[in-house]
Design brief:
By secondary structure, the protein is mainly α. It has helices at 5-18, 23-35, 42-54, 59-98, 107-136, 151-154, 158-173, 178-192.
Length: 193
């Protein structure tokens, strides 16, 4: 099932409107609107996440563009990118208009921004957990298969866990540039996973 171009615009307008805290929050909202409705598979979605994280630019915009391109080519990429960016542009213009005076110092405004921080952290944590589960675990459709002698061992993607461990050690214990580690991880994923 493929959404219409208008529906894609509305989905990404919604994502852009309610993304408070960055691109990882946008990923959680995209997953709810795109994957859970069956427009794309979870595997394809998380492959798109990996590619979007590896390319320059904000991950939320990269994902919007990529998903739009996947459905409708260049016109779809333009539609989803505009849908994702438009709410931010409008909100920033409104904030700039109202915050030019003492509006930002009012207790209500301060408390709203203070309340948004933990909610944003929670959304980012959900997105990170989803990526880890999909990348490092073989989640079975029937959980009774875990109870077999090798079931628990088959639950883990050992090659992905090893690649993750090596990349983490290289990142924190060597002076190899993170971009080189990302490129090596992309090559490893394409060739071996």
């Amino acid at each position: 099932m493929i959404p219409s171009q208008f529906e894609l615009f509305c989905i990404f307008f919604y994502v852009g409107l309610f993304t408070i805290g960055g691109g990882l929050v946008a990923i959680t909202l995209m997953q709810q609107r795109i994957v859970e409705r069956g427009y794309i598979s979870p595997e394809l979605f998380y492959n798109m996440v990996a590619i979007s994280e590896s390319t320059p630019g904000p991950i939320g915009m990269n994902m919007a563009t990529y998903i739009g391109y996947e459905f409708y080519g260049i016109p779809g990429a333009i539609i989803t990118t505009i849908g994702q960016a438009l709410p931010s542009i409008v909100v920033i213009l409104l904030i700039a208009f109202f915050l030019s005076g003492k509006f930002g110092e009012k207790p209500l405004v301060k408390s709203i921004f203070k309340t948004l921080r933990p909610a944003t952290c929670g959304l980012i944590l959900v997105a990170a957990a989803d990526v880890f589960v999909l990348a490092l675990l073989n989640v079975p459709k029937d959980f009774s298969s875990i109870l077999t002698p090798n079931g628990l061992l088959n639950l883990f993607r050992w090659d992905s866990i090893a690649a993750y461990a090596v990349a983490t050690v290289l990142l924190f214990k060597t002076k190899i540039h993170p971009v080189a580690i990302v490129i090596a991880g992309a090559v490893f994923g394409v060739l071996f996973l």
